[in-house]
Amino acid sequence: MRDLFRLLGRYHVLLLFFVAQGFALSWYASSHGHPRGKWVRSHLAITGAWDAQWSSIASLASLAEENEQLARDLAEARGQTHSTPSFRHHPAKVIRSTSHATHNVLVLEKSDSLQRWTPDQGVLSQGFAAGRILEVEGAYALAVPLITAGMEWSGRVRRDGPVGRVRWKVGDPERGQMIDVPRSTNVFPGDTLFTTGFQGVFPPDVPIGRVVDRKGPESEEFSTLEFEYLVDFRSLRYVEWVERPDATLIDSLLNTFNNLSWTD
After folding, report:
1. Tens of pLDDT along 231-255?
2. Which is it for the CA torsion 115, 121, 122, 123, positive or negative?
3. Are strands 222-229 and 175-182 parallel, antiparallel or unpaired?
4. CA torsion angle for 53, 58, 64, 69 (degrees, to 10)?
């Protein structure tokens, strides 16, 4: 305290000068029209710019929340719209994903705690085929997207075309290949590839991608189609997982079929 008084005593003249200067500027700005207008305009410019910055930040945060809510609502709406007696759709949030690894993954969190998901259920994004659930633990699931090396899926050229095997063109998150397509099949760029439903993962006729090229020598009986995925795997936020209520019955029938003893 003694040091503070000594400091005030040493610089009291300078402090009085600043106080007097403040009163003078305040009186001058408030009693003279031009200086007052300039002072107000300067203050308005500074505070306006500051408020604009904070408003932009607040707007971005609000927009992000609105986009997230919109994505969630759309996923729920698509689930209700595309559900059938055999396949029911439920929304889930993507909380982690990869798209540039050799074996990519999706980590999902389901929105409805009352719905029970199981391995081998399909995952859709905006109504397009996206992947398959591998493991589940409570509200979370580990899924593999279509862009995973070593995974093959059943696909069909258009809704009435031949069936082929769909696989990822490793290294390119936007492109895949359908192999073993008969050369006699008329296929054109822009044709859509659909799921068949044979694997029990996806419902039939779910779009997978669009053909961009056909490869393989003309002399070969089968060709390879190169296509672009309809799902943007680098920006997945909300998806739908597909519940198959009759899965137990179908699996039971298949087991019965496999256990039959065939005789001539």
Report:
1. 999 999 899 999 876 655 555 555 6
2. positive
3. antiparallel
4. -160
Which tokens go with 38? 């300039």
On the question of pLDDT at 22 being above 90, the answer is no
Tens of pLDDT, residues 139-167: 999 999 999 999 999 999 999 899 999 99
Q: Are 129 and 202 in contact (CB under 8 A)?
A: yes
- Number of alpha carbons in the 13 Å side-chain half-sphere of residue 3: 0
Q: What secondary structure letter does DSSP report for 223?
A: E
Classify domain 90-245 at the CATH superfamily level.
Rod shape-determining protein MreC, domain 2 (2.40.10.350)
Backbone angles phi, psi at 58, to 5 degrees: -65, -40
Q: Can you tell me the distance from the alpha carbon of 146 to that of 151, in angstroms, rounded to the nearest whole number?
A: 7
Q: Where are the domains of the chain?
A: 90-245
pLDDT digits (tens, 9 = 90+) for 42-86: 555 555 555 556 555 655 555 556 565 666 666 666 655 555 666
pLDDT of 136: 92
